[in-house]
Automatic annotation (TrEMBL):
Protein's name according to its UniProt entry: 2,4'-dihydroxyacetophenone dioxygenase
Organism this protein belongs to: Hyalangium minutum
Keywords associated with the record: Dioxygenase, Oxidoreductase
InterPro entries found in the cross-reference section: ChrR-like_cupin_dom, RmlC-like_jellyroll, RmlC_Cupin_sf
CDD domains: cupin_DAD
């Protein structure tokens, strides 16, 4: 019987990954892009007062606050350092960085993120592929090496 090929650990030096702006006050560091658009892992940074508008996740999400605070706008709950939020597939939410320091969240996204307008219509959609392309373009535009962050 043949043994499966060994796959080694793949550490990533996050200091070598730039903060990539997505919108004013909102930037991310990609950590891993899962194949076949299954999802991605990232650090998300929001400056105080910056909001993540209403969106839906097609798969589950795991979010761990590393620093700063964020307010879940649907419930009013405030999540601080060390706080963990699980979002099931099809969850719709929005949140905002509160307090005086940026919030940094380690997030694992399965599936896509679909941003919604007030009528519930999709206005934009992020997948592992779209986020990997944002990373590729940012590195090319700034003359930075692109790390292999594929699974």
């Amino acid at each position: 019987m043949s043994q499966p090929a060994a796959v080694g650990s793949r550490p990533v030096d996050t200091e070598r990954i730039p903060w990539i702006p997505q919108s004013p006050g909102n930037s991310f560091k990609p950590l891993r892009f899962l194949p076949e658009d299954r999802g991605w892992v990232l650090l998300l940074r929001l400056e105080p007062g910056t909001a993540i508008s209403r969106h839906r996740h097609t798969g589950e999400v795991h979010a761990f606050n590393l620093s700063g605070q964020r307010k879940l706008l649907e419930t009013g709950e405030v999540v601080g350092p060390g706080g963990y939020v699980y979002e099931p597939a099809n969850n719709v939410d929005s949140w905002m960085a509160v307090g005086t320091e940026p919030v940094i969240v380690h997030i694992t996204v399965y599936g896509a993120v679909e941003y919604l307008n007030e009528r519930g219509e999709i206005t934009r959609r992020y997948t592992s592929s779209t986020q990997q392309e944002v990373y590729r373009r940012f590195c090319a535009e700034h003359g930075l090496p692109m790390l292999d962050l594929t699974a």
